[in-house]
Amino acid sequence: AQPVHPLDLFGIDTLLSDEERDIRDTVRSMGDRELRPHVAEWFETGAIPARELALSLGELGVLGMHLQGYGCAGTSAVAYGLACMELEAVDSGLRSLVSVQGSLAMYAIWKYGSEEQKQQWLPGMAAGRFIGCFGLTEPDAGSDPGSMRTRATRDGSDWVLNGTKMWITNGSVSDVAVVWARTDDGVRGFLVPAGTPGFTRNDIKQKLSLRASVTSELVLEDVRLPADAMLPQARGLSGPLGCLNEARFGIVFGALGAARDCLETAISYAADRTVFDRPLAGFQLTQQKLADMSLELGKGMLLAVHLGRLKDAGRITPERISLGKLNNVREAIAIARECRTVLGANGITLEYPVLRHANNLESVLTYEGTSEVHSLVIGGAVTGIAAFR
Ligand code: TGC
Ligand code: FAD
What we know:
Layout: H1 18-45, H2 50-60, E1 68-69, E2 72-73, H3 77-90, H4 92-112, H5 115-127, E3 132-135, E4 151-155, E5 158-169, E6 176-183, E7 186-193, E8 199-203, E9 215-225, H6 238-272, E10 274-275, E11 278-279, H7 284-312, H8 318-342, H9 354-366, H10 371-383
């Protein structure tokens, strides 16, 4: 019999195709070689080389990898999830860069854009030559995007946009922003190129989480756009929410990457660390921690692969994505915090990844729908009663 791998007690590998394993291993080795050696410094300084990273990730083929055509690979949903997992095993900020580019900005254009918009933006975004961002959240409208204030009004055939978007990943480094705004015809999406007069971006500083990621405010003051800047196929809130389904799916896998990296670190640390004249790993309390975390990691992977297979079969629903996002992010942050205890004082430094991951996961718990929002989506599905309004 094959020896059981400590990080895959469930044998999840046996559920994956050769191609999926290959993609996962390729992303993992690129991450270990090119990203991991720098990530603690990026986190500490709060600065990432976003342009270089986008080009490297484009070369790796992960930007919009689950989309068909326009320079995108058209992989399975599971393969995309596994790539998210390997990137987030390095840092949630890197997975965020890829999620926002591929699942939010590119997906919005791919799903709702005109043929001209797709040709103009998608091949360059897949290659990492153009960076995109996705502006839905506002200073006073996060969980309830339906209360957004950003407005687009018509002036002749032009559109004029006014408003502020907040907490926008990739905001200040983007070449194009997908901005959602209220119109007389409901919520519509607009492509706002960087450099458009009246469009400014300000970075959010002093973050204690997701420091290896750019997070910005977008300010739109009488931003004039031509008629063809609007995404023709998105009408109403279901437009942006349709994009969120894609990004949330990536997080179902991604968060477990951060958890796995913490667990791997804790297992190795506990084996090396001597306490009371014995390896820390030999104590029953430690083994219980490691066993429980392995169990939750494996259960989360089973859920992720199951949801991925449903997505590939066209049978995923928003409620199912909520189950995955709620469970896997909640368990990932619990694992990261528990691993921090195993490392004792060493756990609080950037020499080890565990508290960096735990801090990042605070953002992951909040963005793409908070735990409370996903609980209420599930509650609505169970009871038939919508609790939001
Ligand atoms: P509600 O009245 O339920 O629905 C309005 C319209 O939207 C449709 N809909 C969906 N469509 C597609 N996918 C979904 N998941 C959908 N959920 C709802 C719905 O059918 C309806 O369509 P129609 O045609 O009848 O108009 O909407 P509500 O206003 O009550 O709000 C529901 C709620 C709270 C679940 C939703 O607004 C929500 O998900 N809030 C959380 C917001 C959020 O997640 N924001 C994320 C911003 S982006 C981000 O965080 C990027 S982080 C960076 C990274 O990913 O790394
Ligand atoms: P609020 O909506 O004000 O919620 C505050 C608290 O109230 C939360 O605990 C929430 O769960 C709770 N709450 C809300 N409604 C209810 C209810 N009905 N019942 C009980 N509790 C409730 N947005 C984008 O558009 N694009 C991006 O690229 C992007 N990137 C981000 C990057 C980072 C690092 C972060 C932190 C956020 C990002 N966001 C982005 C914003 C993110 O999506 C929002 O922060 C999130 O949707 C929550 O909104 P909020 O922060 O305004 O919190």
